[in-house]
Amino acid sequence: MSAAATLYAISAVLEVGGIVKTVWDIRNARQNLRDFIRRPRHVYASDAAVAAEAYNVGVVTSEPKALEQRVEDLEEWKRTLPEALDRRDREVVTRLETRLQGDLDASRRTVQAQLMEVSEYLEGGLQSATVSYWGPAALFVGVVVGFCGNLAALG
Question: How many CB atoms lie within 10 A of CB 106?
C-alpha cells in the first residue's frame, strides 16, 4: 500500500470519527439541557410566619345592667373605637409588611439561585472543558492528514 493511500485511509477514519463524535456531543448536549430544565428547583420558603389573632368582641356580664349603664358603656365604646381601629390597622399593616418582606426575600433568593444554576450551565461548569472539542479536533487532524496524502500523491 502506498503512503498516499495510507494517509487517505487515516484521514477518512479521522474525519468520519470526528463527525460522529461531534454529532454525539450535540446529542448529549441536548439531553443534558433537557435534564437540566426538568430537574427540580429549590424554592426558598418565606421566613415570615403567619400570625393569627382572635379579637374578643363578646362582652359577658354577670348581672343585668340598667339602660343608663348600657348607654354609658356604648358611648365609652364609641369614644375608644377610632383609637382601637387605628391600633388594629397599624398592627395589620406591620404584619403585612413583615410578611411581604419575607416573601420578597424568599423570591429573591430563589431567583438568584436559579440564575446562578443557569449561568453555571451556560458557562459549561457541568461538563469537562474538552468534551466538546474532540470531534472537531479529530476532523481537523483528518483534513490535515488528507492534505498530506495529497502532497504525497503529487510527489
Answer: 16
Q: How far apart are the first and last CA of the chain?
A: 16
Q: What are the Cα distances from residue 136, in Å, to 24, 26, 50, 69, 143?
A: 12, 12, 58, 97, 11
Instruction: Write phi, then psi, for 133 (nearest 5 degrees).
Output: -105, -10
Nearest one of 33, 17, 30 to 136, comparing CA atoms: 17
Better-predicted residue by pLDDT, 48 or 120: 120
Cell triple for 139: 476532523
Q: What value does the mean pLDDT of the chain take?
A: 82
Cα distance between residue 36 and residue 121, in whole Å: 8
Nearest to 135 by CA among 29, 30, 26, 34: 26
Please tell me the predicted confidence (pLDDT) of residue 144. 92
| pLDDT (tens digit per residue) in 89-111 | 999 999 999 999 988 998 999 88
Residue 125 has pLDDT above 60, yes or no: yes
